[in-house]
Amino acid sequence: MQTQPKASHFIDGEYVEDTAGTPIDVIYPYTGKIIASLHAATPPIITQALASAERAQRDWGAMTGTQRGRVLRRAADIMRARNHDLSVLETFDTGKPYQETSVADATSGADALEYFGGLAGAMTGEHIPLAGGDFVYTRREPLGVCVGIGAWNYPTQIACWKAAPALACGNAMVFKPSETTPLCALQVAEILHEAGAPPGIFNVVQGMGDVGASLISDARVAKVSLTGSVPTGRKVYAAAAENIRHVTMELGGKSPIVIFDDADIDNAVSGAILGNFYSTGQVCSNGTRVFVQKGIKEAFIARLGARLQGVVMGDPQDPTTNFGPMVSDTQRKIVQAYIQKGVAEGARLTAGGNTPDRDGFFIEPTVFADVTDDMTIAREEIFGPVMCVLDFETEAEALARANATEFGLAASVFTNDLTRAHRMAAGFAAGTCYINTHNLAPVEAPFGGSKLSGVGRENSKLALNHYSEMKGVYVAMNDVEAPF
Ligand SMILES: NC(=O)c1ccc[n+]([C@@H]2O[C@H](COP(=O)([O-])OP(=O)(O)OC[C@H]3O[C@@H](n4cnc5c(N)ncnc54)[C@H](O)[C@@H]3O)[C@@H](O)[C@H]2O)c1
């Protein structure tokens, strides 16, 4: 497959290059080899992208929602038809196994385009009757030019989850992918263009944090939606505050999975695997603190150990591989340091912990038992395949400890006690909760975090509120009464 794009940026319906920008080498995590070379956006590229988006948004925002929705739904169809190629590219970009990318990335992106394409024509205001026949009507209006900034773990999905509601509401978007995975968003731009999106409606510019910062500080920008870490979120939120801009923040997490002794233990083990090792642990909503009720702790660890025998680590493009390398050597080193800290602080290593002696940024799926709440590995987001198993005795204790974190992205409970399941879901201080599963993110459901994990929600009808604002129009049906 040709992994080198035609040029670094996609602006106004075409590929654009400016070789004066800082070089960005794209590394395939399986081989450590360079598979594409791009350039970060220079100030003229940033200006070009924002000017084109501002120009295009005026007409796009004036179209009917049905017309815009048609373009998005066409893009969804193209994306589904190209799923194989897009998945292969996503695997080159991230190192995630094709077994995952073929069902979770372009497909999830297409779902978002289809869903918000469907909703676009159904967005309406309301009529509010008042005394004396006066009334107010509301108009849902686009914000204008939105900036999207992506993390490296789900490059296609992140681009689509931001573009689809933004465009459905009549905005234009300038999207900056992560510098680690810059390839897939260009494909999203091509597909939207091919589906009939007017030039400039979705522009992609490459670059590091400084490019993101320049985009946000531009006066033409009405909103920024970031998927990234909490430290970056703080900077982006502060920069947006300078001009009182709208924000959506999808940030990090240290989510709990609470497993009671009445749970279906195989389902609980599956949930913990999904919530810790999918995408080699590089998922923001991962349930990395697994609280297991004391009586079943050793049984849980034994079953988990047996299931880990099913890990197939290898060439991520091979459809039988179910566990790929980490996205970069840097990220792998961060995870290695956390594993060392876990050992040093006295946690019991029950699986993995090693770096396989082979090419690629691999690290074994790792499980620590007897983890306590104060250990570094139980407090900080690791963003790699490291599961911490903690044990508990009572429901009240589990809930209090699950919530004792500055993050609040996701939380799940495994139990067969119906009332306890709902009690726990109501008690979790997290934006995205699960009962008897973990980490599913269908487009119909709101996704996002509370506390340090974020602001706003992606997906679901709620996302429309974050990409539009309501204008109230007061209509007088009577003479104006003035005091003099
Ligand atoms: N909540 C979610 O939906 C979600 C999803 C995926 C990843 N994440 C989080 O993302 C993190 C991993 O991704 P990452 O390492 O790419 O995150 P990161 O914060 O390092 O970078 C995210 C993006 O922000 C850009 N950026 C960096 N500094 C900036 C600045 N000052 N101004 C504007 N943009 C700037 C980066 O170039 C990149 O595109 C983890 O913390 C993970 O939990 C969250």
Automatic annotation (TrEMBL):
The keyword NAD applies. Keywords: Metal-binding, NAD, Oxidation, Oxidoreductase, Potassium. The active site is at residue 250. Gene3D superfamilies: Aldehyde Dehydrogenase, Chain A, domain 1 (3.40.605.10), Aldehyde Dehydrogenase, Chain A, domain 2 (3.40.309.10). One of its GO terms (molecular function) is betaine-aldehyde dehydrogenase (NAD+) activity. One of its GO terms (biological process) is glycine betaine biosynthetic process from choline. Its EC number is 1.2.1.8. This is Betaine-aldehyde dehydrogenase. InterPro entries: Ald_DH/histidinol_DH, Ald_DH_C, Ald_DH_CS_CYS, Ald_DH_CS_GLU, Ald_DH_N, Aldehyde_DH_dom, BADH. Pfam families: Aldedh (PF00171). Belongs to the aldehyde dehydrogenase family. Residues 16-472 form the Aldehyde dehydrogenase domain.
